[in-house]
Amino acid sequence: AQSVAQPEDQVNVAEGNPLTVKCTYSVSGNPYLFWYVQYPNRGLQFLLKYITGDNLVKGSYGFEAEFNKSQTSFHLKKPSALVSDSALYFCAVRDMTNFNKFYFGSGTKLNVKP
Amino acid sequence: GAVVSQHPSRVICKSGTSVKIECRSLDFQATTMFWYRQFPKQSLMLMATSNEGSKATYEQGVEKDKFLINHASLTLSTLTVTSAHPEDSSFYICSAYPENAGGRETQYFGPGTRLLVL
After folding, report:
1. Which of A40, A50, A61 is nearest to A92 (CA)?
2. How far, in Å, CA of B3 to CA of B21, rounded?
């Protein structure tokens, strides 16, 4: 079965500092991994995805994520956090037997303080 | 980019009434749409997969007679919460998957509908 885990319910970081939001996955075969951001009372916005290729994936709003096969991780990163980055972040993996299904992590609330 | 809309964005209804939520793909055709439910501070729970021209596929534990799904065209899916009760109050999010997209594509999410049943 496919799954992702986000071990941190909340991450606090000061504006201007680098941020990391953690995600680990469990899949059989090569994973298709995604990061989404959700602002209050809004749907999810796509940030980036890893399918194949370079382990470092660059996405929207200056975010990037590093795919690490040996550690089965796909952590979301940004070199310099903005207050406006404060939101709920979800990691997701696509079901490799049923491409229609995505499995979402529990979400991590990012708080960026001025 | 691909845009998905939902209507209404917020609805308040009395217990026992039915509520219809629309999900539209605005600039692409979607053979498949998905309906999720999100409780406060929790992740998204997939409720059902909506397939154009055929019956929806419901996840285990989701009552198909309670949550009626109709995918009448390649750009519109509707979710009707029948005989709503306060426990149905939640945030409902739809997503759409572009027609003919391969496995590398992401789903595109609507802005969500906040349902409050009094």
Report:
1. A50
2. 17
State the amino acid at position A49 in one-letter form. K
Q: Does B108 reach chain A within 8 Å, measured CB to CB?
A: yes
pLDDT, residue B104, reads 64
Question: Which two tokens mark B56?
Answer: 């929806």
Which chain A residues touch B44 with a CB distance below 8 Å?
44, 90, 104
Q: Report how far residue A104's alpha carbon sits from residue B71's, in angstroms, rounded to the nearest whole number.
A: 24
What span, in angstroms and rounded, lies between the C-alpha atoms of A81 and A9? Answer: 18
Would you say A83 and A114 are in contact if contact means Cβ atoms under 8 Å apart?
A: yes
Instruction: For residue A107, list chain B residues with Cβ-Cβ distance below 8 A.
Output: 41-43
Express each pLDDT in A67-109 by its tens digit: 999 999 999 999 999 999 999 999 999 887 777 778 899 999 9
> B-contacting residues of A 53-72, CB under 8 Å?
none
Rounded average pLDDT over A50-59? 91
Tokens found for residue B54: 């055929």
For residue range B54-63, list pLDDT tens digits in order. 889 999 999 9
